[in-house]
Automatic annotation (TrEMBL):
<feature type="transmembrane region" description="Helical">
    <location>
        <begin position="162"/>
        <end position="182"/>
    </location>
</feature>
<keyword id="KW-1133">Transmembrane helix</keyword>
<feature type="transmembrane region" description="Helical">
    <location>
        <begin position="203"/>
        <end position="223"/>
    </location>
</feature>
<feature type="transmembrane region" description="Helical">
    <location>
        <begin position="138"/>
        <end position="156"/>
    </location>
</feature>
<feature type="transmembrane region" description="Helical">
    <location>
        <begin position="251"/>
        <end position="272"/>
    </location>
</feature>
<feature type="domain" description="GYF">
    <location>
        <begin position="6"/>
        <end position="55"/>
    </location>
</feature>
<feature type="transmembrane region" description="Helical">
    <location>
        <begin position="97"/>
        <end position="117"/>
    </location>
</feature>
<dbReference type="Pfam" id="PF14237">
    <property type="entry name" value="GYF_2"/>
</dbReference>
<keyword id="KW-0472">Membrane</keyword>
<protein>
    <recommendedName>
        <fullName>GYF domain-containing protein</fullName>
    </recommendedName>
</protein>
<dbReference type="InterPro" id="IPR025640">
    <property type="entry name" value="GYF_2"/>
</dbReference>
<keyword id="KW-0812">Transmembrane</keyword>
Length: 294
């Protein structure tokens, strides 16, 4: 069965195909359980994973144990690996358009933004964190999204001083959003003790540097990778470290290809999913001690 590709059902949607090795990783992390419906070529129809001979052979380790003050973890929770995301072509496009339209219309922004982040997080697969979720509510930082929506209009003023102030404001608001997202992640319904510890001055500094680097034509790609690594280093509350593995060249050519394809309009849904899946896969979890000794 090692060369087979598998599909599984999650939240009423078909996921896959995945090689069997990755399916077994989903089983180990609890994303796929014995009750999850799966299908592979040659099968007459969908079956529960636990009914497939050999799929659950050898067991998946001891049952989860509860850590004081933390979420449920299993004995295999100390592993690592890249993140992945399962998004449909049209569902991603639709959610992205709702997010943008919400900001443009300003008033719906808190609802569309919260819904977008909740949907995106639910599609993420994180090693050792089954059933990832987002617990943030519309009323938490609703004013942040309203102001961000208003900033899109103020940016057309044409005054350099106003645009500079807007950059500072947007950088600060973006920092608030990152902190909010990190503080509202959950696994199996349990809030994760994750927090973003990056300072507001550091974050706004990177935000400004990113904006300025655009004039270098290609330098922004290396600023992006450095900024993402700074963000990852400032994510705390877990025994594993988040790392960003993309290179400047990798970000550069993929972003340029994405922008070029979007210019033809029709490919947008497909290249949007391609780019999103690649970008997410560049984030990975590693043991802090192992990473330090690497």
């Amino acid at each position: 069965m090692s060369n087979r590709s598998w599909f599984f059902a999650s939240q009423g949607q078909q996921q896959g195909p995945y090689p069997e090795a990755q399916l077994r990783q989903f089983i180990a992390t609890g994303t796929v359980t014995a009750e999850t419906l799966v299908w592979s070529e040659g099968m007459a129809g969908w079956q529960k994973a636990g009914e497939i001979p050999g799929l659950f052979s050898g067991g998946s380790g001891p049952p989860p144990i509860s850590q004081a003050g933390g979420p449920l973890v299993s004995a295999g929770d100390h592993g690592g690996g890249p993140l992945s995301i399962d998004v449909g072509v049209w569902s991603l496009l639709g959610q992205s358009l709702l997010f943008v339209i919400g900001l443009v219309l300003v008033i719906p922004a808190p609802w569309t933004a919260t819904g977008f982040y909740r949907w995106m997080v639910s599609r993420l697969h994180v090693p050792g964190r089954p059933n990832l979720g987002f617990t943030g509510e519309v009323g938490d930082i609703w004013y942040v999204f309203v102001v961000l929506g208003l900033c899109t209009y103020a940016g057309f003023s044409g005054y350099t001083s106003v645009q500079l102030i807007l950059l500072l404001v947007e950088g600060f608001l973006s920092w608030m959003v990152v902190r909010w997202i990190a503080a509202n992640l959950s696994s199996n319904g349990e809030r994760l003790p994750i927090e973003f510890k990056g300072s507001v001055l550091g974050y706004v500094g990177w935000y400004l540097l990113m904006t300025i680097s655009v004039i270098t034509i290609i330098g922004w790609a290396w600023v992006t990778t450095a900024w993402m690594r700074w963000i990852c280093r400032n994510i705390g509350g877990t025994h594993r470290e988040v790392v960003f593995n993309a290179t400047g060249w990798g970000v550069l050519w993929r972003t340029l290809l994405f922008g070029l394809a979007c210019g033809f309009l029709i490919p947008i849904p497909w290249v949007l999913r391609w780019y999103t899946r690649w970008y997410v896969s560049q984030f990975a979890l590693v043991e802090r001690t192992a990473y330090a000794n690497a």
